[in-house]
Amino acid sequence: MRYNQVIVVEGSHDEQKLKSIYPEIDCIVTNGSEISTETLNLIYETSLIKEVILFLDPDYPGKRITAKIIDTNGIYKLAYITKDKAINKNHTKVGIEHASKEDLQESLSSLMSIDPNGKKISRIHLLKRGLISEANSALLRKYLCQKMNIPYANGKTFLKYLNILNIEIERIDELIHEYKSQFTSKKSY
């Protein structure tokens, strides 16, 4: 982590976990899903002078907070960890604080830049590729989300993620081909 980076997390336990790995890192804590206007403004203003990394819990409240922050149109990067890597031992709570050091480091090493003005992929692109309105659309989206290290989403939110993360349609096509080739390849004896 660099001195000019700030990580946005949900709670103080998330901050403590990250500081145990990166003692010098600066964090902004949202204090849960009821993020205040003042905190949103702080995050936005910080994004104008430092690299702000959104690293929220991989659950509904975390996605909601991320969406609120993105709507401020600041300049952000997104770190994402899957739910199975951020769940406690009792399988009752999900959060950054429960993830292993290695999984947190991996997530923070594969950041995606958010472009709030990106609008390259349309709903038609998703329809043509079977990513919405088909029987296996959810499975295909789930595969793509895992491969791109973004939260699993319904069709509308998936489209939003693709555009704000400025993901090229060619990348989507590569992953779809990879997904389909799993089912068409046969072993030769």
Describe this structure in words.
The protein is of the alpha/beta class and 189 residues long. It folds into 2 domains: 1-114, Dna Topoisomerase Vi A Subunit, Chain: A, domain 2; 118-183, no CATH class. Helix content is 45%, strand content 10%. The chain has 8 helices and 5 strands, in the order βαβαβαβαβαααα. The protein has helices at residues 12-21, 37-47, 60-70, 101-109, 123-128, 137-148, 155-164, 169-184; strands spanning 5-9, 26-29, 51-54, 76-78, 112-114. It has a 5-stranded mixed β-sheet with strand order 2-1-3-4-5. Strand 1, helix 1 (12-21) and strand 2 form a beta-alpha-beta unit. Helix 6 (137-148) crosses helix 8. The radius of gyration is 18 Å and the shape is globular. 25% of the residues are buried.
What is the spatial order of strands in the main beta sheet? 2-1-3-4-5
Structural shape: globular
Count of runs of 4 or more consecutive helical residues: 8
Q: What is the number of strand segments? A: 5
Q: Indicate the proportion of strand residues.
A: 5-15%
The largest sheet, given as strand count, sense and whether it forms a barrel, is:
5 strands, mixed
Structural class from helices and strands? alpha/beta
What is the typical, i.e. mean, pLDDT?
88
- Give the helix level as a range of percent: 40-55%
Q: Kindly provide the name of the CATH class of the largest domain.
A: Alpha Beta
CATH topology of the largest domain: Dna Topoisomerase Vi A Subunit, Chain: A, domain 2
Low-confidence stretches: none
Summed up, the domain count is: 2
Compressed to H and E, one letter per element, the order equals EHEHEHEHEHHHH
Question: Separation of termini?
Answer: 49 Å
**Rounded radius of gyration (Å):** 18 Å
What CATH architecture label of the largest domain applies? 3-Layer(aba) Sandwich
